[in-house]
Amino acid sequence: MTNTTHEADVAFIQALAELLREHDLTELQVKREYGEDDSLDVRVSRSAPAPVLSAPMAMPAMAAMPAAPMAIAPAAAAPAEDPAQHPGAVTSPMVGTAYLQPEPGSDAFVKVGDTVSEGQTLLIIEAMKTMNHIPAPRSGTVKRILIEDGAPVEYGAPLMILE
């Protein structure tokens, strides 16, 4: 590998680290192909959880995070409750940006109190310029919405509570 390629790879890795910080991600993995038998596999990660939404499902820091404005927190909800551990939690299947409505200015897919059926779209997660519809895993009532529209989410982060 030439020094020029090495410098370009270092710049590429630094750019990935900057993306990680800018979008509050905890991990980013990329494979860069140079030719038939030449590639660069890069995985950039950080151990601290993202400040907007937590990363792994069992992260205890989730309880300390404020609820989104759309979420309702009845008096019965304990402040130390971890939404990811709730039996009705719908978690993110991927890293991306969550949208609660099909397009800006339109009505949300669901609101707190709505009854949903299995397979009904709850929200969209944009990942790599692809809009992924997130279906309800079961029928129920939307009790809490734990994210804001346009918020970055990570794999396993709780999105909503269905009961």
TrEMBL record:
GO terms for biological process: fatty acid biosynthetic process. PROSITE patterns: BIOTIN (PS00188), BIOTINYL_LIPOYL (PS50968). Transmembrane segments: none annotated. Keywords: Biotin, Fatty acid biosynthesis, Fatty acid metabolism, Lipid biosynthesis, Lipid metabolism. InterPro entries: AcCoA_biotinCC, Biotin_BS, Biotin_Carboxyl_Carrier/Decarb, Biotin_lipoyl, Single_hybrid_motif. Pfam families: Biotin_lipoyl. The keyword Lipid metabolism applies. Residues 87-163 form the Lipoyl-binding domain. Pathway: Lipid metabolism; fatty acid biosynthesis. GO terms for cellular component: acetyl-CoA carboxylase complex. One of its GO terms (molecular function) is acetyl-CoA carboxylase activity. This protein is a component of the acetyl coenzyme A carboxylase complex; first, biotin carboxylase catalyzes the carboxylation of the carrier protein and then the transcarboxylase transfers the carboxyl group to form malonyl-CoA. NCBIfam families: BCCP. This is Biotin carboxyl carrier protein of acetyl-CoA carboxylase. It comes from Rhodovulum strictum.
